[in-house]
Amino acid sequence: MSDEATSSGRITIYDRETKESRTVDWGPGHSLEYWWQEGNGHCDCNRGLYFWSEKETEARCGHSRYVITHVDGYEIDFEEWNSGWEASL
Ligand SMILES: [Zn+2]
Questions:
Q1: Distance 53 CA to ligand 1 centre (A)
Q2: Residue 14 in domain
Q3: What's the angle, vertex CA 57, arms to CA 55 and CA 12, rounded to 5?
Q4: Is residue 87 part of a domain?
């Protein structure tokens, strides 16, 4: 993943288990809110994909590990982006 900002914006995901974050492009044309709030991105298994390049980990389906902490252009409402995850661990 590049560290250069792009016009499409970026999203930061935090791994509560390893305490690492990844900031990634969500990509142009992506249905950002739907994908992360209701679609496949609303599951640990898909959020975990962004961590697999450096960690050999197999994220399970669920709502406990990977939380969204930042989205370019949005004020993060935890419940909105991470509904199902506990607000604090
Ligand atoms: Zn899943």
A1: 18
A2: yes
A3: 65
A4: no
